[in-house]
From TrEMBL:
InterPro entries (UniProt xref): PHP_dom, PHP_domain, Pol/His_phosphatase_N, Pol/histidinol_Pase-like
Domain of life: Bacteria
Species in which this protein is naturally found: Ruoffia tabacinasalis
Biological classification of the source: Bacteria, Bacillati, Bacillota, Bacilli, Lactobacillales
Protein known as: CehA/McbA family metallohydrolase
Every Polymerase/histidinol phosphatase N-terminal domain range: 8-75
Pfam family, one: PHP
Length: 337
């Protein structure tokens, strides 16, 4: 089955909160960057979304948009996407956040923890995640890369480890990249990009939301990745939930390609290699490739003793002078007993 990938941005602001973009400017910037999808997440308001349907690129379906909001509180920032109504967050406290997340779920919204390790007070009140979530099944994703140059930030490493800890505890939870876009960037800025992977040739609002909810996406500093497990004529991909036995002795097929996004083409990428984990066990590491000039493919056969939990891939390398850093982080295929 042919698969289609769509670069999207799920964390962006306008003049309806503290961004510099008008709604129209944000959409135009997103289209020219190459995004196929965009979620508006102003601080504590979704008002800007009302302007979106009248923007030409939205009318023309050059870009698919969803509404959202960034709960901006003293105890953390939380992204809520496409809820049927704005759940009232104002009474949420560090020990009652589960109740509010559950209400978002009842309203068919998605929950993402934004920049969990950003510096909090007095630099940025509430930017650090201080909520004590009891049940991480209520969280759809953790934003492990926030804003520009995520590869240079210690917060990215802490957030990545925070995400892995939840995965290793058995939660089905994705990692995301949020540009936290507020204003036009300088030319030397690089950012993490979220790529949805779908079987559908056309992105719709429903596919956009479903892919985010199911974890059918990876995040990247540029290159694109195709990661598939093929077994007995069946194909499995990120976001699938399958029995371990269905993947055992299956063949992993991976293809990495240079970025297709103009703004990211010139950044230096070296010493690239691929890693695959079954839970916290590293089960495959490719050779290191000096550079990524064309397609890089890597295949291997999975063992016959996979453990329940997850299977996930990563591409690492040197990026703009940061050594041995995650370049692509794939969301898991979840394995059940
Ligand atoms: Zn924030
Ligand atoms: Zn934000």
């Amino acid at each position: 089955m042919k698969r289609y990938q769509y670069p999207v941005e799920v964390h962006a602001h306008t003049i309806h909160s503290d961004g510099q973009f008008t709604v129209e400017e944000l959409i135009e910037s997103a289209v020219s960057f190459g995004y196929k999808g965009l979620i508006l997440t102003d601080h504590n308001t979704s008002a800007g979304y009302l302007e979106m349907p009248s923007v030409q690129a939205v009318k023309d379906e050059d870009i698919i948009t969803l509404h959202g909001i960034e709960w901006t509180t003293y105890f953390g920032h939380m992204l809520v996407h496409d809820a049927d109504y704005d759940v009232d967050w104002r009474e949420a406290t560090p020990t009652t956040i589960d109740k509010y997340m559950f209400e978002v779920q009842l309203a068919n919204g998605l929950v993402g923890i934004a920049h969990p390790f950003d510096i909090g007070s007095p630099i940025c009140t509430g930017c650090h995640w201080d909520y004590q979530v009891e049940n991480y099944d209520l969280v759809d994703y953790i934003e492990i890369w926030n804003s520009n140059q995520p590869q240079e930030k210690s917060e990215s490493i802490l957030a990545y480890e925070f995400w892995l800890d939840k995965l290793n505890k058995g939660y089905e939870i994705s990692c995301s990249a949020g540009r936290d876009w507020h204003r036009p960037d300088t030319e030397d800025a690089n950012m993490g990009v979220t790529y949805l992977e779908l079987n559908e040739e056309k992105l719709t609002q429903d596919h956009f939301k479903d892919a985010l909810q199911n974890g059918q996406y990876y995040i990247t500093l540029g290159p694109t990745a195709y990661f598939t497990v093929e077994n007995k004529d069946l194909l499995f991909q990120m976001g699938d939930r399958v029995h371990c036995s269905m993947l055992e002795e299956g063949k992993i097929l991976m293809t990495i390609k240079p970025t297709e996004l103009e703004a990211l083409k010139d950044f230096e990428l070296e010493n690239i290699y691929i890693l695959v984990w079954n839970n916290d066990q590293l089960i495959f590491q490719s050779e290191t490739n000096k550079e990524l000039s064309g397609e890089l493919t890597s295949n291997f056969t999975l063992p016959n003793n996979l453990s329940a939990g997850y299977l996930r891939f990563e591409v690492r390398g040197d990026y703009r002078g940061t050594k041995d850093t995650p370049i692509i982080v794939g969301n898991p295929i979840y394995l059940r007993e």
